[in-house]
Amino acid sequence: METIILPDDIKIVYVIANSFPAGIPAAIEKLHSIVPFTNDRKYISVSRPEDGEAIVYKAGATELKEGELSKYDLRSMIIKKGKYYYLEVHNFRNDVMAIANAFKKLIAQKDVDPYGYCVEWYSNTSENVKCMVRIKD
To answer: What range does the domain containing 81 cover?
Structure first.
């Protein structure tokens, strides 16, 4: 397990999965059908229990310039800057459960931000994903 510092907040626009985990592929597919793909864009999805209930998954992407994606009427949120634990999952499509297993290890840390998200930062050039959780200030 390693740490990384996000020096700035990251704004994403997102599509909510209709269920977790079964609805994740459809949410990602919907996001990709709306948001034009480019290697410059960051694809970052988040999840956590919401309202004391089930886990809510938000398939997200960044804007390349402020307001660029406003015409699509997508919701937006901020991923807080700060220090994060992370594990990189290689070839995640070959073992989707590796992402869940990475997050089990990450959220087991005693100093994880209880109000943070499980963050999946997808590489645009490989089949890798960085699984991250924010550390308390």
So the answer is: 2-134
Q: Could you give the number of structural domains in the chain?
A: 1
22-69 confidence digits (pLDDT tens): 999 999 999 999 998 888 999 999 999 987 778 999 999 999 998 888
Domain at 20, CATH number: 3.20.80.10
- Spatial contact of 129 and 89, defined as CB atoms under 8 Å apart: yes
Output phi, psi for 27, to 5 deg: -65, -40
- Which run of H or E residues covers position 115? none
- The reported pTM is 0.93
Asked if residue 56 lies in contact with residue 106, where contact means CB atoms within 8 angstroms, the answer is no
Contact partners, residue 3, CB within 8 Å, separation at least 6? 83, 84, 85, 86, 135
In degrees and rounded to multiples of 5, residue 136 shows phi and psi of -55, 145
Residue 71 identity: K
d(Cα 133, Cα 77) in Å, to the nearest integer? 16
